Amino acid sequence: MREQDEALQAAAAFLARSQRDTEPPLAIDTELVRESNGLLIVPYNSVQYLASREAREQLLDCWPILVDLERGDVRFGTLEERHLWKNTSA
């Protein structure tokens, strides 16, 4: 099983590789990272939003990055998996 710190580093590298030149600078929302069903759920948003937490700066529909803690696979979440990060009591 991957350590959470190592999984978070893998998610950050994945986000950096995935970022397009046309997008605002993005960063992981470390306050909302959590583990569920063997996955590290890693939300991200614009650096500007994360600094201010002002809703008008928030990017919409940012699918979180999911890191499989057993295998180490890193990818964006899918529509079918939305329940993992939207319907939680945490």
From TrEMBL:
- Please state every residue range assigned to the domain named Immunity protein: 5-76
- Source superkingdom: Bacteria
- Record protein name field: Immunity protein 35 domain-containing protein
Q: Which organism is it from?
A: Streptomyces cyaneogriseus subsp. noncyanogenus
